[in-house]
Structure prediction request, 931 residues.
Amino acid sequence: MNHQPTIKPSKARTAAQGHFRTLRLGTPFQPRIDALARTQDWYNWAGYRAPHSLWDEELEYFAIRSQAALFDISPMTKYRVEGPDAEAFLDRVTLRDVTKLKPGRVHYTAWCDDEGFVLDDGTLFRLSPTRFRLCSQERHLPWLLDSAIGFDVAVEEETESIAGLALQGPTSFAVLRDAGFAGVETLKIFDLAEFPHDGGTVTISRTGFTGDLGYELFVPAENALSLWDRLMTAGELRGIRAIGYTALNRARIEAGLIVANADFTTEHAIRADRLRMPDEIGLGFMVDLEKGHFNGRRAILEARARRKLRHVLVGLEIEGNIPAEHAIVYHKKSQEVGLVSAAMWSPMAKRNIAIASLTRPYGDTMVEDLWVEIYAMRELQYQKLMKRAKVVARPFIKLDRRTANPPADF
Amino acid sequence: MTSFDAIVIGGGHNGLVAAATLAKAGRKVLVLEAAVDVGGAARTEDFAPGFRVSSIAHVLNRLHPDVVKTLELEKHGLQIARGDFMPSVALSKDGPPLVLHGAYGEVLTGSTPSEQSAWKELRAQLLRYAGILKPFLSRRPPDLAGMSLKETAALGQTALALKKLGKEDMRDFLRVLLMNVADLLDEQLADIRLKGLLAFDATLGSHLGPRSPTSLLGLYYRLAGETGGAAGAQMLPKGGMGAVVTAMRSAAEKAGVTIRTAAPVARIIIEKGRAVGVALDSGEVLRARTIVSAINPATTMLDLVGPREIDTGFVRKVKNIRMKGDAAKLHLALDRPPQFTGVDAADHKGRMVIAPSPDHVERAFNPSKYGEFSAEPVMEITLPSLSDPSLAPAGACVLSAVVHYVPYALKEGWDAGKPKFLKAIMTQLETYAPGIGKSVLHTELLTPADIEARYRMPGGHWHHGELQADQMLMSRPVSGWSGYDTPVEGLFLAGAGSHPGGGVSGAPGLNAAKRIIAMKG
Prediction:
């Protein structure tokens, strides 16, 4: 008498639960990217299937520096922030003074929790007096919605509905002009404007993550493929290439830019001492004490007053040519004082560069006698190299073409 | 224009205590009260021609001795005499009541000898354990982020007090601390009337039934209070609760405090993260170095300060404070004193409780979870005019009752539900005091929604935030900010929403003032 009821899942329920069958989502550009993906070298970017490389990571890097590189940034988290209080809301959430951000402009910013710890960094696009787009690495909707209490503002995630492309490199302007985006030459660095495309519009900003001349394009997902094709066609003779993250990552290290959860740990940290204040990751310049209240203000002020800032993020130049990725930083070759979070041999700077987090006063007031210990694997044997490191300014490279007006036609 | 060092928002008893204490420490203090009179929910008010009653709080059982001392309330007319201690009477439908005499049942009558000795033991134990917690009432909650030597030493005293209990007793203290009251009572007592009374007292004013985990804490909170030096003692102040407030007001004014009534504050003015003043509804702006809010913490932070001036995480915490009241207040103007069956004349002057058994209390709680009221509500009844004839016309009588487990948001809405609820209450009263219905001249029933509107208490909650384990001590009003200061520099909280909680104790107001003085605010 063992009556086990058989529960048959309804068809509707089964259909609604199909999400797990697609382990990693495709972006609106996926058909084009899949067609170019010779290396089949994928990684997981916020749940999307994104390429580490597509054909050759070295050449993809050089596409950024010598041609035009097309990188799919659709997985980047995007929020639409709109309403009469949008400006005031973002001013309260983020560190920089949003009242100074004019419509048609973009700025790089960051935001903190009550304790002054950085939740994320990202770019804020002011599309109109009352409409913004906030782009970030991590997802923050609950935080943003709770931050909206008391403000007349709507916050909506638009990561899926808006596709994004970064077009970076010396010929990127020429590609856009040849693609017929009339007036794109008027865009100065951190400007944005809307351009007609495929019966709709595309928002083009002169921004990027490479330290090079470059643009970012945002378009409704349904117009994504036609935008890709338009750029690829126009760029054919200008060396346009689709690239993966490895190449982009190299360019951003040269540009001295940091990545959340790679160069600093955000709210996901399990260990309380891993969280970082803006001053500890080189973002102290964003903190605007003259503007109105913003999240973390009290804690940041207190940390500054009580000298509770324990870390500092620095650029390092390391002797030799072996990348010091994740190497430990020492003072006087013996005392551990920090860790390298990103490193490479820079083909542009012709220097061995790194981004590192050090424990103050090292890297802050004590910058002499710093060393990194590199484990170089040489035919199944580690060779330990103790190399001298020098604290240097970021960015490691400065390209005039990034900011030149009008943008150069290569 | 006179300038003030400190502005206290809210002239409830905690506001008055904070103001008087600050003034005694040399500060020029202004109290702003929104209503036409001070006292908040501890006023004595007319509710029918010739009838006066303590508005919400009607039994004095936890006015903190430090408050009495600091404000010298006895000099200002407050009288507390042992002879005024009132008994607690557990009413019974089918027999004589059970009565706790003196300070929370020093003597128990109306039960068997074996129950009397069991009660004697339990009472001693409850008072011993409540005594461990008692010192916490008069100081800041332990600060996890770092404590001064003095604070650490005070916490050490508690550890010492625990140790002094002896091994067995200490273990038992820790065992029962978070228990539900019903289970503890079942361990030690047999008489369901006594258990019903204790179950009622443990849960009164909170959204817990006797069988809800941690409900025993409510009983400790009650017994940590004292009156006239006797733990658990209770009395009806002469002239109603308003007389206590009058003494506080007099003490405050004597100390130099300026009190302005009918002066509702519209907002707290913040400049560069610092509270620098207040703007009144009238538009008038008043500035001071220190702003003390003795009103609800959520109203203070979300309405007067506003989310724009505080961090998102803090807004979240404040919004999450549970503060939906579960108690209603009933005022009856009676043409003659009622006769509760089996209750003698002296006990009619006591606190009469309808809570026949823990099960009954639990069953009264159940519907409140789903937005309904109990058909047989539990309540505590006082007849203040019997001991203070000034409250009613000659020969007439005032009945003041706290009726428990009344949902703040009644599912069917209070417009439709209130007459039905009143009928349920009157039916219940009629059972215990036959004929009472016919003697009613006037009725006033305040649901939590009414209390919210009339006394500016969000949710109509007299503690300004549920007083449960997760909203006590260092979690009151919110974790990280339990020390009376707030993320806004120069702004302090001093109301019942702060540690230790509600009831006419004055402890939050006193503790806050002490903190402000220590911070040189």
Q: What stands out?
A: The radius of gyration of chain A is 23 Å. The first strand of chain A starts at residue 41 and ends at 45. The mean pLDDT of chain A is 95.
